[in-house]
UniProtKB/TrEMBL annotation:
Residues 131-270 form the N-acetyltransferase domain. It comes from the Bacteria. SUPFAM superfamilies: Acyl-CoA N-acyltransferases (Nat). This is GNAT family N-acetyltransferase. Pfam families: Acetyltransf_1. CDD domains: NAT_SF (cd04301). Transmembrane segments: none annotated.
Length: 270
């Protein structure tokens, strides 16, 4: 990327807004990015992720309501299972979240957007005794990732299995998937998306079995992915972090820039 690498939070947020949101690129084959009036959205299959990634920073109330209504109409026309408006804490107008709720969207738990310069992150991988880190490259590995995710978050992991296999099949060059193994048991997993041409790589899905937390497994997963990003010439890592992982990431050198909240619209079955 051409931008000077920066650590200034305000400049970094402005860079993220422009490169990763306003000028967003499709995250995977089969997806497309559209500029639709005052928003930029990513769209694909009806059952996949469809949603708004950027909205104009000068939106007023009337334009905001019009944009929200248009996205609801788009979701209905396209037959999407769900449509997400990814709202950031600094987006305008200030009451955009309330306007989304009024239009039928449901808010999920907010997360914190954190970004770090890759060059400033530790890349030495130190796993606790008895745990090894494996890269996932096939169906068996995807199954282990799903099992680790289920243990970490207490939810069905079949969606992750499908996602990992799809990404490995369609674009393995820009995707990294990891599972931490204690003997034959998966105890943690994580993945990374490398956004070509942006300078940014995204860390996703890091989660550890409660019985293995506090031993450095999560930190090792971050360090491994930071090393891969450095080898491939990426400038920044970004994370949408829960309150569980945010303090760890800040200790590792990540800077909190803003919050991000998913607002989900699901059409009413006819």
């Amino acid at each position: 990327m051409n931008d000077h690498v920066t650590s200034d939070p305000a400049r970094l947020l402005a860079l993220f807004d422009r490169v990763m949101r306003e000028e967003a690129r499709p995250e995977a084959p089969g997806l497309r990015v559209e500029r639709a009036g005052d928003v930029v959205r990513q769209v694909g299959a009806a059952h996949g992720w469809n949603g708004v990634v950027w909205s104009a920073p000068d939106l007023d109330a009337a334009r905001a309501d019009a944009a929200v209504a248009e996205q609801v109409a788009y979701c209905e026309r396209a037959g999407c299972d769900a449509f997400e408006w990814k709202l950031y804490g600094h987006d305008r107008p200030a009451d955009l979240g309330a306007r989304l709720l009024a239009a039928g969207f449901k808010a999920e738990e907010p997360e914190t957007l954190l970004v770090a310069r890759v060059a400033e992150l530790a890349t030495a991988v130190r796993m606790p005794e008895g745990v090894r880190l494996e890269e996932v490259r096939d169906e068996a590995g995807a199954e282990l990732m799903a099992r680790a995710n289920e243990r970490a978050f207490g939810r069905d992991g079949s969606w992750l299995r499908r996602l990992v296999l799809e990404r490995l099949r369609e674009d393995p060059e820009h995707f990294v998937a990891l599972v931490a193994m204690a003997g034959d048991e998966p105890v943690s997993s994580a993945r990374m998306e490398l956004y070509a041409g942006t300078g940014f790589a995204g860390l996703w899905g890091g989660g550890t079995d409660p019985a293995w937390r506090g031993r450095g497994v999560y930190r090792a997963l971050v360090a491994f992915r930071a090393g891969v990003a450095a080898e491939r010439g990426y400038d920044y890592l970004q994370v949408d972090a829960t309150e569980d992982s945010r303090p760890i990431l800040e200790r590792l050198g990540f800077t909190a820039l803003t919050t991000t909240t998913p607002y989900i619209y699901r059409p009413t079955p006819s």
